[in-house]
Inverse folding.
């Protein structure tokens, strides 16, 4: 695999990304939520068949995935601020409790201002699934499905499916193993094969079907009271047990409710072909 | 695989402790746009529905009376008939005078196949009292949101069937979730008691 010749590579650190981040910031300042002319905000991910790490049956077949477009970068604080300004019902002081918990955008200095703890080019975090859905709709988009996210995130800089590459997996684990107490980096990490950035190494991301990932294949199991609870559902067998980085992501997402927010959970959006901004 | 199970359990617990500290039922956030509707009301969610008679309605139109809500799909052979059975048994477990004082809404998980005609067939076959029961459909994006609000997990399988958790959710007259049960087959006494309490308020 391509990475083997570069054992010293590690995930880009925030400090190594300042140049790209400044460029991204410049684009944001030029107009939040407006696609940059040089680099569209969304990039097409070609159709394929993909075997998710969730698939547990030994003979499981890859699932066809149609062509879709994925946001190159997670949604930033600056972009989310523009959204709540245009849609004030999503301000933290106005959102109904049904849609977001008390920590929703709590790191912003005010309901309509970012402040020192929320840099414009940092990915927005402390957003609920409902809020992420609403944001994506404002871009005429939607949240990606888990399969769409996983498929894009399986790509390294050079290979569409790098999951079999031990060095690649090690890089991912290095990030997941880092404590999350430090300040978040800014968007603009190195692009993968498709030109998508920050799928790993920056934040967790909501997906449309986050709640369904641990659902077993047979509704008749539901009389077992533990079946859909986490430790019970944790009995799902992973096709590739080496993919701990993905396992952690799946476990984290599955533990959430749609109104939950966390300090490390952001999102990006996806679009079906033909849907334009 | 056995080694993975405790790992996942510990992981989820650890993540839940560190990443997901927020309470689910925050105090009302003063929703200015929807006067008097509580912030935690399920009716904060706008869901356009079409019922078994092809009539359009909004999810929030149920406001004013308690309502038992669940999700199902008509081609489901095993669990979904049980959902209807369980609601009927819950009704029968209540005093006769109470039975007509709440509504029932079943929303399809399968908008591709569950047309109003398909829904009507089930309503007719099960002889449901459609003055109080609504079987309804909406689009996929609203299915996902409604399921999130009700805490129902589902996943469409490759053969078009759905794997889903089943729950009866009791909403009070303002749409707040006051009880839920995942016990199917017989009326859940605790859920019946919750319906009775809600009707007594």
């Amino acid at each position: 695999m391509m990475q083997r010749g570069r054992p010293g590579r590690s995930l880009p650190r925030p400090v190594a990304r300042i140049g790209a981040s400044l460029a991204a910031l410049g684009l944001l300042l030029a107009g939040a939520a407006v696609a940059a002319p040089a680099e569209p905000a969304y990039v097409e991910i070609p159709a394929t068949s993909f075997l998710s790490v969730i698939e547990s049956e030994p003979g499981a077949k890859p699932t066809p995935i149609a062509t879709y477009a994925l946001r190159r970068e997670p949604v930033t604080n600056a972009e989310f601020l523009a959204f709540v300004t245009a849609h004030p019902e999503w301000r933290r002081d106005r959102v109904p409790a049904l849609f977001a918990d008390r920590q929703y955008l709590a790191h912003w200095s005010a309901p309509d201002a970012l402040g020192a703890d929320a840099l414009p080019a940092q990915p927005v975090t402390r957003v609920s699934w409902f809020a992420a859905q609403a944001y994506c709709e404002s871009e005429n988009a939607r949240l990606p499905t888990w399969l769409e996210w996983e498929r894009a995130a399986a790509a390294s800089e050079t290979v569409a499916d790098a999951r079999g590459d031990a060095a690649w997996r090690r890089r991912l684990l290095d990030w997941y193993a880092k404590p999350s107490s430090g300040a978040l980096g800014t968007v603009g990490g190195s692009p993968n094969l498709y030109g998508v950035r920050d799928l790993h190494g920056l934040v967790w991301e909501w997906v449309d079907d986050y709640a369904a990932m641990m659902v077993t294949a047979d509704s008749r199991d539901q009389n077992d009271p533990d079946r859909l609870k986490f430790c019970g559902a944790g009995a799902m067998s992973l096709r590739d047990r080496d993919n701990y980085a993905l396992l952690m992501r799946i476990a984290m997402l599955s533990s959430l409710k749609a109104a939950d927010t966390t300090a490390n959970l952001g999102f990006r959006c996806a679009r079906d072909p033909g849907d334009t901004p | 695989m056995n080694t993975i199970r405790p790992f996942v359990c510990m992981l989820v617990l650890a993540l839940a402790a560190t990443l997901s500290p927020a309470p689910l039922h925050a105090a009302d956030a003063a929703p200015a746009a929807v006067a008097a509707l509580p912030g935690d009301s399920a009716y904060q969610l706008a869901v356009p529905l079409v019922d078994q008679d092809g009539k359009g309605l909004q999810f929030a139109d149920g406001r004013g009376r308690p309502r038992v809500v669940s999700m199902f799909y008509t081609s489901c052979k095993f669990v979904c008939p049980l959902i209807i059975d369980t609601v009927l048994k819950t009704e029968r477990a209540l005093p006769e005078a109470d039975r007509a004082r709440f509504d029932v809404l079943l929303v399809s998980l399968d908008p591709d196949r569950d047309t109003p005609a398909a829904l009507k067939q089930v309503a007719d076959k099960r002889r449901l009292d459609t003055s109080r029961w609504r079987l309804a459909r909406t689009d996929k994006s609203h299915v996902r949101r409604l399921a999130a609000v009700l805490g129902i997990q589902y996943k469409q399988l490759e053969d078009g069937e759905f794997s889903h958790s089943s729950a009866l959710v009791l909403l009070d007259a303002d749409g707040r979730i006051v009880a839920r049960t995942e016990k199917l087959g017989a009326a859940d006494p605790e859920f019946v008691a919750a319906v009775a309490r809600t009707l007594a308020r």
Remarks:
- Chain B touches chain A through 55 residues (CB under 8 Å).
- The helical segments of chain B are 4-19, 80-92, 96-99, 116-125, 140-150, 189-200.
- The longest helix of chain B spans residues 4-19.
- The CA atoms of residues 30 and 88 of chain B lie 37 Å apart.
